[in-house]
């Protein structure tokens, strides 16, 4: 199962094509997990997500010599949300189940289902949006439900990232002396002080 880095997917008359950036993991808003055989039905869903201005990582061309599992793992860890597409084919994929488990463990999983696929037993308690009646209209209630769920997760992840960045900046500022204080400290270090103590002659001379 392959994926496309964000901002590299092209939709045209020939279908979906990808450009790739070898040896570089790019943080995407949404990581899409699916079985490659389901690509035609996943493409319109990806288009709906990108229409909201979010980046999507799915189906990239792998560079020669690149380790497949390592790149998948890196992209999965960087993604803000994970969208898993359950179908009769994908439920049997260990890759899809593993990626979905990673998303669920991080609390960023949004599942959808086609063809009434029987969900893996450990995902049956997770709310899943059925897309069997979807006509590929991005305004449909089913897709809008998926987009709302993704949007909530993405905003939450962005807020957490911004808070962590602010805290890191504040810590760095607190540990760095102000220019005036640093100059004063340098001046004090450079100043030479002489202390003269009184002396009493005890020899009687």
Kindly describe this structure:
- There is one protein chain.
- The chain has helices at 39-50, 68-78, 94-106, 141-175, 179-190, and strands at 9-12, 15-18, 30-33, 56-57, 81-86, 109-113, 129-130.
- The protein is α/β, with parallel strands linked by helices and 205 residues long.
- The strands form two sheets. The chain has a five-stranded parallel β-sheet. A two-stranded antiparallel ribbon has the order 1-2.
- The longest helix has 35 residues, at 141-175.
- It is elongated and about 110 Å long.
Could you outline the blueprint of secondary structure elements for this entry?
Blueprint: E1 9-12, E2 15-18, E3 30-33, H1 39-50, E4 56-57, H2 68-78, E5 81-86, H3 94-106, E6 109-113, E7 129-130, H4 141-175, H5 179-190
Parallel strand pairs: 3-4, 3-5, 5-6, 6-7
Antiparallel strand pairs: 1-2
Order of helices and strands: EEEHEHEHEEHH
Widest sheet: strand ordering: 4-3-5-6-7
Evaluate the radius of gyration: 29 Å
Q: How many beta-strand segments?
A: 7
**Roughly what is the average pLDDT, rounded to an integer?**
79
Rough shape?
Answer: elongated
- Unreliable residue runs: 1-24
**Strand-residue fraction?**
5-15%
The number of helical elements comes to 5
Helix content: 40-55%
Distance between the termini: 101 Å
Provide the structure class: alpha/beta
The major sheet is characterized as:
5 strands, parallel
